[in-house]
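In the present case, backbone shapes were mapped to integers, as reproduced here:
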Amino acid sequence: MDKFVIDGARPLAGEVHCSGSKNSALPILAAALLCDGESVISGVPRLRDVDSLLAILRELGMSAERRADGDILLKVEDLEPVTARYELVSTMRASFCVLGPLVGRRRRARVSLPGGCVIGVRPVDLHIRGLRALGAEVRVENGYVVAEAPRLRGAKIFLSGQFGPTVTGTANILMAAVLADGRTIIENAACEPEVQDLGNFLAAAGARIAGIGTHRLVIDGVKSLRGVTWRVIPDRIEAGTFLLAGAITRGAVTVRDCEPDHLSALLAALTEIGVPTEVGADFIRTGPADGFRPYHLTTLPYPGFPTDLQAQMMALLALADGICAVTERIYPDRFMHVAELNRMGADIRKEGANALIHGVEHLSGAPVMASDLRASAALVNAALAARGRTEIGRVYHIDRGYEKIVEKLLGLGAAIERVDDKKLVGATADSEG
């Protein structure tokens, strides 16, 4: 099992190019199940999660191959398979998004309940409620969601849970509705950029969708969709992670090929904290900060501060000049990184869905363990700023969401190395050139 070895306290500097969005690519790849003919999806990052979903799609009767230029070619060849196995779906939650297109086009689906990061309870009841509203018979048996419908019918659906709109639930119901009879109205739909990208992809394929980018989607069902060529949007979470890496190390980092409008909440937070930023049409640059002012952060559905950047921001707030607070309103249990940050010298106390942070002068290198994808990124950023050496175990989590993260950080001047934790740690990343 690999781990990262990082020698910290080095300001990052330089440019890094943003990869395509994982959270956009996955539902778009699943949406190709709805299309006749070939679809070509470009900008898809090379990640474990993408490979896992492609394996599921192949078992569902699709040809799916990545060309030398990185584009992924998809075509439905067999409409009979309807089962997404536990062994594959359990590796990541986003694979559950094959449920909607399977029911929408093949009229039946048998999809394992999802897995993914351990960040608290993330129920699928809203997915089930939405499909039932469209006329599907849905039951849970032996760990699988089984949905059947001779024909889906348009309906008015209110998609709201305890913690607000559901992103994957909106994607699933949207994909099920595009081939249903009549009109479907989704109220309180998620409007994250990734949901917008999915809606625009479906519209390019021939779907009739109004309200993309709002909390009210109106879908008039069509008879069929055609294959299209599509480029996924930049990954706003990867971009934010690198911007925060530059900020926490008191460096100057430019993220190119990003979409600044998707990161307005992060940019506002950085300004409040005291991190200089410069924004262009497709780039964001952070400059060195003299210090970090106290800040109270609350995660919210888009366009609020994204929960997927909460852990990375907490690592930076651990070095603030005063007391900070973090309130997690999307996944209240998403604080697995707190104990590991405290091992590095942070002073953070969790109380329910809140964390109280007393800023410290510096963090110190220590052996820590990654618990999930974004916690991994937070630990990497903390290690980059910490004095001394940090060893981060279970970095397979970070491979699910960050393309070539070691190479990108090396390009910014980080001293980071990926090693087999069964081997004696030798030279640092400096020896890699």
